[in-house]
Amino acid sequence: GGGGGGPREPAEATERVPCAGSEGRIIGKGGETIRRISRESGARIDIERDSGECVVSGSVAAVMAGVAAVRRVLEEDRGGGGGGGRRRETEAEMPSSLPAPPGPYAAAGDGYGVPVDPGDPPPDPGPPKAPPIEPNFGLSGALAAETNTVNGVELVYVEPPEKTKPSLKWRLYVFKNGELTGEPLHIHRQSYYLFGRERKVVDVPTDHPSCSKQHAVIQYRERTKWDDDEGADVKVAVPYIMDLNSTNGTHLNGDRIEPQRYYELLEKDTIKFGMSTREYVLLNEDSK
After folding, report:
1. Residue 223 φ/ψ, nearest 5 degrees
2. Half-sphere exposure of residue 89, counting CA atoms within 13 Å on the CB side?
3. Is the pTM of this model over 0.70?
4. Distance between the two ends of the chain, CA-based, in angstroms?
5. CATH architecture of the domain with range 12-78
6. What span, in angstroms and rounded, lies between the C-alpha atoms of 260 and 93?
7. Average pLDDT over residues 221-230
8. Cα distance between residue 271 and residue 286, in whole Å
9. Residue-level pLDDT at 11
10. Which of these, 158, 155, 137, lies nearest to 201 by C-alpha position?
11. CATH class for domain 141-284?
12. How far apart are CA 228 and CA 11, in angstroms?
């Protein structure tokens, strides 16, 4: 008898990337592009024309590299974008602009409007809306007592009151030119992580010359969200990213984000800093 019998096969994974309308760009002339992505990432790439999705399968590392490569092709084809159509929360998010249907309508809470009689008095606009929440850059707590400096360097960022540590073990996987580099960065042990070139204060150095000294921050914030299993609202630690007025910007799934504004991070998001070619893919211990 005996066990083992050779090296264990790497875990298989599958990821689907919406690509409707860009299938030809992914396949390339004579299949050149899709073969190159498969060869460089080690993943199997299939196009499902019925669903309009690109199916990437293989080992976890190969799938992450393949998905990043597919998204780069899609960004080139669409002039930027990404994120698979998922809705994310940002601070001071503006309501959707919806076309007004024909006929006399009064504004309603859902933005579409409800029919009214033209002879009716104008509807009550209700109480004024609260102004959008802005990030708090004021000094507070222990940092204020220390004049907001660490190792003699003044910090440009101060954590908000709703700061919290995550229970999920979040990680950043770093890719350069489609290749996984080094070990994953564990970013679950504190409530925020500062990125940039100033090694005296940052948690994750980004040494590319196009990156600013204090470039961006990932901040965990306590939020109340609905839990289907619990059947109730629960408090969770949600990761957000903020660009700290960097010179060359921070990109989330190919889009440059506005500075000094929180953007909710979602599993499998890709982050880039400045003009560096390094891509940081966000996963956690439960990622499949």
Report:
1. -135, 155
2. 11
3. no
4. 33
5. 2-Layer Sandwich (3.30)
6. 13
7. 81
8. 20
9. 54
10. 155
11. mainly beta
12. 28
Measured between alpha carbons, how far is 67 from 65 in angstroms, rounded to an integer? 6
pLDDT single digits (tens) 65-114: 888 888 888 877 655 443 333 445 565 433 333 343 344 433 333 333 34
- Distances in Å between the Cα of 93 and the Cα atoms of 88, 131, 261, 267 are 10, 11, 10, 20
Long-range Cβ contacts of 78-85 (<8 Å, 24+ apart) = 78/22, 80/254, 80/255, 81/253, 81/254, 81/255, 82/252, 82/253, 82/254, 82/255, 82/270, 83/252, 83/253, 83/255, 83/266, 83/269, 84/17, 84/18, 85/18
Task: Report how far residue 86's alpha carbon sits from residue 241's, in angstroms, rounded to the nearest whole number.
Answer: 16
- Outline which parts of the chain fall under CATH 3.30.1370.10: 12-78
Amino acid letter for position 194: L
Interval 269-279 mean pLDDT: 95
Alpha carbon distance 187, 168 (integer Å):
10
Contact in structure between 74 and 82 (CB atoms under 8 Å): yes
Interatomic CA distance for residues 78 and 85, integer angstroms? 13
Number of other CB atoms surrounding residue 187 within 10 Å: 21
Torsion sign (Cα): 92, 270, 282, 53: positive
Q: Where, residue-wise, is CATH 2.60.200.20 in the chain? A: 141-284
Q: Which tokens sit at 281?
A: 């893919």
